[in-house]
């Protein structure tokens, strides 16, 4: 079931979505705002004078060569044609085990050529994290100015049967507990990472996932 205005308002008031505001709620979606930090793709030092590209592995989830930009310090960022960045939302999410969500572009963004890659699905149990966004300027002749707090998209919510904790993103996901924009995180099987490095709530405690089913 797709949640509508009053149900989303209940989620905001109960801090399922932190750092939000009722004024950002639409008929059946919630506007998201551009956060403080972005990561900008840069030319790898090792290929600077070769004309070649650096190879990154999808299997090993290598990170791109990037630099961080602080929008509060720099005041704005100009996204050039073809340029790729990672960005973050101001809003932080604590998605219950009976709820999932999906990020969508706003039409005004699409109409100036600001594209978001199709990677905006948020599974049940994802918690304690801002949303990392992947943007590209699709235009040929225009630069796009990005400012802290810009409405940078919207998110829609889907209510469903509760997922068992062990099958939820809370137990199995890599991007829990991240309060800023994030590059790829390897699977635990890729790097031998212990469970102690993951942000995993106690499913019996339930404090991260209170009963919002009346929303």
Keyphrases for this structure?
single chain; mainly beta; 215 residues; globular; Deoxyuridine 5'-Triphosphate Nucleotidohydrolase, Chain A; nine-stranded antiparallel β-sheet
Percent helix, as a range, is 10-25%
- The Rg value, from CA coordinates, equals 18 Å
Mean pLDDT, rounded to whole units?
A: 88
Low-confidence stretches: 190-199, 202-207, 211-215
Number of strands: 11
CATH class: Mainly Beta
Provide the CATH superfamily: Deoxyuridine triphosphatase (dUTPase)
Query: Per CATH, what is the topology?
Result: Deoxyuridine 5'-Triphosphate Nucleotidohydrolase, Chain A
Shape: globular
Strand pairing plus helix content: what structural class? mainly beta
**SS element count, helices:** 5
β-strand percent reads 25-35%
Q: Summarize the main sheet.
A: 9 strands, antiparallel
* SSE topology string: HEEEHEEEHEEEEEHH
How far the N terminus sits from the C terminus, by CA atoms, comes to 12 Å
* Number of structural domains: 1
CATH hierarchy: architecture: Distorted Sandwich
């Amino acid at each position: 079931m797709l949640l509508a205005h009053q149900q989303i308002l209940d989620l905001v008031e109960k801090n399922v979505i932190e750092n939000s505001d009722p004024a950002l709620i639409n008929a059946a979606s919630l506007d998201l705002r551009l956060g403080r930090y972005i990561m900008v793709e840069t030319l790898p030092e090792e290929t600077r004078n070769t004309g070649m590209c650096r190879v990154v592995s999808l299997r090993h989830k290598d990170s791109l060569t990037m630099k961080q930009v602080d929008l509060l310090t720099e005041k704005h960022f100009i996204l050039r044609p073809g340029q790729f960045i990672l960005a973050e939302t101001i809003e932080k999410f604590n998605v219950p085990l009976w709820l999932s969500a999906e990020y969508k572009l706003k039409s005004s963004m699409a109409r100036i050529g600001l594209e978001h890659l199709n990677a905006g699905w948020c599974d049940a149990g994802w918690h304690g994290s801002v949303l990392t966004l992947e943007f590209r300027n699709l235009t040929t002749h225009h630069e796009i100015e990005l400012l802290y707090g810009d409405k940078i998209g919207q998110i829609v919510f889907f209510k469903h049967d509760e997922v068992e904790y062990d099958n939820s993103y809370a137990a199995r996901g890599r991007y829990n507990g991240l309060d800023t924009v994030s590059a790829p995180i390897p699977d635990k099987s890729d790097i031998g990472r212990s469970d102690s490095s993951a942000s995993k709530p106690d499913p019996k405690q339930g404090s991260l996932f209170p009963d919002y089913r009346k929303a």
